[in-house]
Amino acid sequence: GLGPPRAQGADFPRAASAWGMPEKDPEDDAFFKLVSCRMPVFLHPSRLGNVKLGVQEQLNAMLLTYAPTLKGVVTGYTGVKILSAKGKIFHGFRHIEIPVSADFLVYAPRVGSIVNATINKVSVDFLGGLTQGVFNISISGEGLKGWKYSSGGFSRENKSKNGGLNRIELGTAIDVIVKDVNTEDNNLFIMGQLASNLPKSKKSIAKAAETTTKREAKKEVGSAKKKTKKKDRDKSPVVKREKNQVKKSKRKGIDEGESSAKKKKKKKRKTK
């Protein structure tokens, strides 16, 4: 055994963070989640004299890397507890397994969501940037549709009339639609597409979305009103009378046609 650990969680820092968390807008906040997790930490024998420090080093090594069990990038942790006074040793493996629990702050952008990025690389067919000031984002190929490279930046082929960006250069802050999330080698890499049809600010985006929704709602209301008017018109006494007259005239025409056909048949019989 390793001997009793010190008071669980008491000797650990209250929180450990990968960086001073940058200021996030409300939409980007949705990509951060707090995940409580129990997990094994593997300590080198040289750390058995100070288990707390060994655990902290292992958890620090997880910062800014993608953790498959947490389904996101670890940006910070808190509430660390050593769950057992004893560790496990496996045959042929020199490290000792220590069970711990902690609350992890995880960054997990979703495909189809919109993130804000600052451009730090520009080439003839590529834009590179950072989102949250840390994570790489790449825009190329179809992601640049509607934009053309010129003089060290990209210009919109058809200028925006709704307050959107018309020029992207180094240092430009842009909205990007997440098309794919690559986590190879536990590093987060985002492939995106320029949100070229969206206005510049998130407030404008919300306003534009609200306007579109209202417009669609008006269309639906208008359509519903037309249907209601038609139903009401169909129920009116005048329309009912007209419909009955049409039915009667049709019936009369059919009856006249039938009687005419019968008369012709009778004539044929008489001539025979």
TrEMBL record:
Q: What is this protein called?
A: DNA-directed RNA polymerase I subunit RPA43
Identify its protein family. Answer: Belongs to the eukaryotic RPA43 RNA polymerase subunit family.
- Annotated region (Disordered), positions in chain: 1-21, 206-272
Instruction: Quote the Gene3D superfamilies the UniProt record gives.
Output: 2.40.50.1060, RNA polymerase Rpb7-like, N-terminal domain
Basic residues bias locations: 262-272
The RPA43 OB domain covers 109-252
- Sections of the chain in a coiled coil: none
What keyword terms does UniProt attach to this protein?
DNA-directed RNA polymerase, Nucleus, Phosphoprotein, Transcription
Q: Which organism encodes this protein? A: Lotharella oceanica
Q: Under the cellular component aspect of Gene Ontology, which terms does the record hold?
A: RNA polymerase I complex
One Pfam family it belongs to: RPA43_OB
